[in-house]
TrEMBL record:
<dbReference type="Pfam" id="PF08264">
    <property type="entry name" value="Anticodon_1"/>
</dbReference>
<feature type="binding site">
    <location>
        <position position="780"/>
    </location>
    <ligand>
        <name>ATP</name>
    </ligand>
</feature>
<dbReference type="InterPro" id="IPR002302">
    <property type="entry name" value="Leu-tRNA-ligase"/>
</dbReference>
<feature type="short sequence motif" description="'KMSKS' region">
    <location>
        <begin position="777"/>
        <end position="781"/>
    </location>
</feature>
<feature type="domain" description="Aminoacyl-tRNA synthetase class Ia">
    <location>
        <begin position="772"/>
        <end position="803"/>
    </location>
</feature>
<dbReference type="InterPro" id="IPR009080">
    <property type="entry name" value="tRNAsynth_Ia_anticodon-bd"/>
</dbReference>
<keyword id="KW-0547">Nucleotide-binding</keyword>
<dbReference type="GO" id="GO:0005829">
    <property type="term" value="C:cytosol"/>
</dbReference>
<dbReference type="InterPro" id="IPR001412">
    <property type="entry name" value="aa-tRNA-synth_I_CS"/>
</dbReference>
<keyword id="KW-0030">Aminoacyl-tRNA synthetase</keyword>
<feature type="domain" description="Methionyl/Valyl/Leucyl/Isoleucyl-tRNA synthetase anticodon-binding">
    <location>
        <begin position="852"/>
        <end position="964"/>
    </location>
</feature>
<dbReference type="InterPro" id="IPR014729">
    <property type="entry name" value="Rossmann-like_a/b/a_fold"/>
</dbReference>
<feature type="domain" description="Leucyl-tRNA synthetase editing">
    <location>
        <begin position="277"/>
        <end position="467"/>
    </location>
</feature>
<protein>
    <recommendedName>
        <fullName>Leucine--tRNA ligase</fullName>
        <ecNumber>6.1.1.4</ecNumber>
    </recommendedName>
</protein>
<dbReference type="GO" id="GO:0002161">
    <property type="term" value="F:aminoacyl-tRNA deacylase activity"/>
</dbReference>
<dbReference type="InterPro" id="IPR002300">
    <property type="entry name" value="aa-tRNA-synth_Ia"/>
</dbReference>
<dbReference type="GO" id="GO:0006429">
    <property type="term" value="P:leucyl-tRNA aminoacylation"/>
</dbReference>
């Protein structure tokens, strides 16, 4: 009976769907286990074989935990809002909802084909109104909250209003805007409603503010830092500039310390934790205030506040640097410096913050012409601007101490001798002639007034005390983490549940949610620069009827304009794991009982590219919801594993350029056109070309090309070696033999991508065109994508699952090689033959041998340990060893093969179901108890001894392990093989170590 994987897999996939085999219960006496995959975005390209890697790993764990008796929640859904769908809509005119729906259908088909044990009854889509109405509700809760530093948590805005009414804001210790104006309780009561709303906006956890953002003109939207790569948009590669816009923001900065401390309580890789620590960027130091000295054009009192981790170096300050976007720049710049400053500010706006942070080599800046006053010496300090200072980090200003900081040192030396750049002052008893002294030890302060003779620790303490005494500074903890911009100028995103009365935001009541995304004619921004929702004609809020109405009805009395921005892509993905807990709940994002039962995610698997963006925002929202009593735990994800990437094996052909220099430059020659023939070089001939190895084929081509010029009248032309001599281009894998790496030339010529080369001459080696191969990221643009559907059709989903695990450790990157999959497929057929022969099921109820038990229990032990340790690749190896051993032992014994079917089930569930069913069992194997390892089957009762004569092993003998040395000697001496070796001699010595060696000497 043959193994027909297609029939078996289709059968069991239908069974699972019909019987809801993997549906989890919110009411179970079993212990819970929640395993989750990172939210996939359903792109039009569908899945390639790299995508399922993490899903297969999580599915193995989910299935294993079911076998262990857990109530397992293993859901799946789609992060279906986002820029790619919108860009496709702009290009094609199709509604993003339509393309997203079609993409999801394609994803679902592919996921089902691989046999994942997802609970599809809990599927969510962030772009569905029944999902994003809860995202809108969470936004409202953030708006209706403030962060109380005294209780160290978010609280209802009502408690803040109560404090204002009783005591004003003098005693309020909140995370809020800078420059809060103090007021009394009487003042608060005398304020108008609008004045009160404006004050509350300074405290709310989500608020409107003019913010420096990454603006992408080509895409017409703001981009997050993680959506920008090398200064351009990740999507499309468009330029990004810095721009000030009024945006919704969220005070994630309020949670900086809790986000930092929470990392100590969760089981994540140290690299991911370190990424988050760096992003949060905690620094301990001091806030120092410098007064700006008046100039001819600037007389108003102004101060520059800086944060420094080295207040001990206060006497080493020789200049100050502001971020080009700093509010003071335009005010304090002198007329003489204005043109240079304006030009620099404009140029800086074209560089992203990430690019500026990463670029440590370029030194640039401009002197403003203004000076600040040193708080102790009262000396004037020149104020510069430089793009290495960021407006959003700290205060957007630094006090430059070149003797103690490499970047300040380089800046000072670069502008040395120019107007506004003093000489570097050394305040350390160390040499700084070649570099700054950046250590926090090994020095004494000099030329530092009252700090002379002190070290870092004592100098810091004394400097802060002195600053506080004169009111010029104080001790402070600073964080790099900035409030998150939450507005996007896009169409395909969650609408804000916000309308505006006299320019002030008003929240729409929960009972009227969702506020559904309107239809628009165009998905681009409006002609006057408004977001795409500015194209909507039915986008106003009737506060009486409590419904969305026509814009024409706006009267700013009862009908008001709605927010035109939409939420960012991370809005829906910042809480989705909780929706899975109770996905069908119409009233709340999840019931209290469901949240209490599931609590949080036990195992989260996904890519390390989400180290800061998604994971940080998710932790922030979870902590906020915990503060307000809506979430049961502080942290959303107990354990996180980042799967590595499956890399593609790209293929290349090599196009040779015509490197000809025409010496004859007559007008006749200039007007003539040579017939530029294309040559495609096989891999090794290309190698000879770039390595300048003498190759007759290459010389022939060069001569042929030169003759083409001679034919048209060129008297003098020479070949010259310019770079590149040849250009590699990617080839679709369908055009090559993946095993021999030979190009199918006719198929290549017929391929629509390569129509330009149909008349090319192919330069072969040994009659074949061999392509180059290189391991790269699997990508559609590199034509190295392998479709999992093709693998499933030819070899089966179980083969795909096993092979992806077999490639290497889960966390590591590894190359895909389709040629290697046949070995795994052969293993499954060998497994099948343990159960079936040509006549059908071949199973015996006989008692297995000790070796059979040993093979089985070695495998139970190994696989159990591997799954617990997420070492899936070595499990596959052990399965292969086990099946080979059982085949050699001619094992067809039920007592061995029944537990083996359960054992293999998490990895290869379809064949396991079929084998379990063939063994006479009803229902699914999915919840059958996992086999338990028993040590007794691995305890050795016999030992195969090597028998040596004078140290040379001559034969082996199997003996019971409980024999004494004397008993062993008696048996060995009586053995016929021993007598043959001795030839009648008596050995001088018989060395026996029970359980180890037998050696006859002399």
């Amino acid at each position: 009976m043959k193994y027909f994987h297609n029939d078996i897999e289709a059968k069991w996939q239908q069974y699972w769907a019909k019987n809801q085999t993997f549906a989890a219960s919110n009411n179970s006496e079993k212990p819970k286990y929640y395993v989750l995959d990172m939210f996939p975005y359903p792109s039009g390209a569908g899945l390639h074989v790299g995508h399922p890697l993490g899903y297969i790993a999580s599915d193995i764990v989910a299935r294993y935990k079911r076998h262990q008796g857990f109530n397992v929640l293993h859901p799946q859904g789609y992060d279906s809002f986002g820029l790619p769908a919108e860009q496709y809509a702009i290009q094609t005119g199709q509604h993003p909802e339509k393309t997203t729906r079609e993409n999801i259908a394609r994803y679902r088909e592919q996921l089902d084909k691989i046999g994942f044990s997802f609970d599809w009854s809990r599927e969510v889509r962030t772009s569905n109104p029944d999902y994003y109405k809860h995202t809108q509700w969470i936004f409202i809760q953030l708006f209706e909250s403030w962060y109380n530093n005294n209780s160290d948590k978010a609280e209802s805005i009502c408690t803040l209003i109560q404090e204002f009414e009783k005591n004003g804001n003098a005693n309020v210790n909140a995370v809020c805007d800078d420059n809060i104006v103090p007021f009394s309780a009487e003042d608060w009561k005398s304020f108008s409603s609008e004045e009160q709303q404006k004050i509350l906006l300074q405290y709310r956890l989500t608020y409107l503010a003019e913010t420096e953002v990454n603006w992408c003109p080509a895409l017409g939207t703001v981009l997050a830092n993680d959506e920008i790569v090398n200064g351009v948009s990740e999507r499309g590669g468009h330029p990004v500039i810095r721009k000030k816009m009024t945006q919704w923001s969220m005070r994630i900065s309020a949670y900086a310390e809790r986000l930092l401390q929470g990392l100590e309580t969760i089981d994540w890789s140290e690299s991911i934790k370190e990424s988050q620590r760096n992003w949060i960027g905690k620094s301990v130091g001091a806030s120092v205030t410098f007064n700006v000295l008046p100039t001819s054009n600037f007389q108003l009192p102004a101060t520059i506040e800086v944060f420094t981790t080295r207040p001990d170096t206060i006497f080493g300050v020789t200049f100050m640097t502001l971020a080009p976007e700093h509010d003071l720049v335009a005010q304090i710049t002198t007329p003489e410096q204005k043109a240079a400053v304006d030009a620099y500010v404009e140029a800086t706006a074209k560089r992203s913050e990430r690019e500026r942070m990463a670029d440590v080599k370029t030194i640039s800046g401009v002197f403003t012409g203004a000076y600040a006053e040193h708080p102790f010496t009262k000396e004037p300090i020149p104020v510069w601007i430089g793009d290495y200072v960021l407006a959003g980090y700290g205060t957007g200003a630094v006090m430059a101490v070149p003797c103690g900081d490499e970047r300040d040192y380089a800046f000072a030396n670069f502008f040395k001798g120019t107007h506004g750049m003093p000489a570097i002052k050394n305040i350390f008893n160390q040499d700084i002639s070649e570099a700054a002294y950046g250590e926090k030890g090994g020095f004494e302060l000099v030329d530092s007034d009252f700090l002379n003779g002190l070290d870092y620790k004592s100098g810091t303490k004394k400097a802060i005390e002195a600053l506080e005494k004169i009111g010029a500074g104080k001790a402070k903890v600073n964080y790099r983490l900035r409030d998150a911009v939450f507005s996007r100028q896009r169409y395909w995103g969650e609408p804000f549940p916000v309308y505006y009365v006299n320019g002030l935001p008003q929240m729409i009541d929960k009972k009227h949610l969702p506020i559904v995304l309107p239809e628009v004619e165009k998905y681009l921004p409006t002609e006057d620069g408004q977001p795409p929702l500015g194209n909507a004609t039915h986008w106003a809020w009737d506060s009486v009827q409590c419904s969305v109405v026509s814009n024409q009805l706006i009267d700013n009395v009862n009908v008001f304009p709605l927010e035109l921005n939409t939420m960012p892509g991370w809005a829906g993905s910042s809480w989705y794991w909780m929706r899975y807990m109770d996905a069908q709940n119409e009233n709340d994002f999840a019931s209290e009982d469901a949240l209490k039962y599931w609590e949080n995610v036990d195992l989260y698997i996904g890519g390390s590219e989400h180290a800061t963006g998604h994971l940080l925002y998710s932790r922030f929202w979870n902590k906020f919801l915990k503060d307000r009593g809506f979430a049961p735990t502080e942290e959303p994800f107990k354990k996180l594993i980042n799967q590595g990437m499956i890399l593609g094996m790209s293929a290349f052909v090599y196009i040779m350029y015509q490197h000809v220099q025409i010496v004859d430059t007559s007008e006749l020659v200039k007007s003539l056109k040579v017939n530029k023939k294309t040559y495609l070089l096989s891999k090794n001939i290309y190698g000879d070309l770039i390595n300048k190895i003498n190759n007759s084929e290459i010389e022939r081509i060069k001569e042929e090309i030169l003759n083409e010029y001679i034919k048209i009248g060129v008297k003098s032309a020479v070949w010259f070696d310019a770079e590149p001599l040849a250009l590699p281009i990617h080839v679709d894998l369908s055009c090559i033999n993946d095993i021999t790496n030979e190009l199918n030339i006719e198929k290549f010529k017929a391929h629509p991508l390569y129509s330009d080369y149909k008349d090319a001459e192919f330069i072969l080696e040994d009659g074949k065109y061999i392509v180059g191969r290189e391991v790269e990221k699997m990508s559609k643009s590199k034509y190295n994508v392998v479709n999992p559907d093709d693998i499933c059709n030819e070899y089966g989903a179980d083969t795909l699952r096993l092979y992806e695990m077999f490639l290497g450790p889960l966390e590591q990157a590894k190359p895909w090689n389709t040629a290697g999959i046949t070995g795994v497929y052969g293993f499954l057929k060998k497994l099948w033959r343990l159960y079936f022969d040509d006549n059908g099921l071949n199973i015996t109820n006989d008692e297995p041998t000790a070796d059979m038990y040993k093979s089985l229990h070695k495998t139970i032990k190994k696989v159990t340990e591997d799954i617990e340790n997420f070492s899936f690749n070595t499990s596959v190896s052990q399965f292969m060893i086990c099946v080979n051993e059982l085949a050699q032992q001619k094992c067809h014994h039920r007592a061995i093969l029944e537990p083996l079917a359960v054992l293999v089930s998490p990895y290869a569930p379809h064949i396991a179901e079929e084998l379990w069913n063939a063994l006479g069992h009803e229902g699914s194997v999915a919840t059958v108890a996992f086999p338990k390892f028993e040590e007794k089957y691995l305890v050795e009762s016999e030992k195969e001894y090597p028998v040596s004569f004078n140290g040379k092993m001559r034969f082996t003998i199997k003996l019971p392990l409980d024999l004494t040395a004397a008993q062993i000697e008696e048996i060995v001496m009586a053995d016929e093989r021993t007598q043959n070796q001795l030839q009648g001699r008596t050995p001088n010595k018989v060395i026996i170590v029970p359980g180890k060696i037998i050696n006859l000497v002399g």
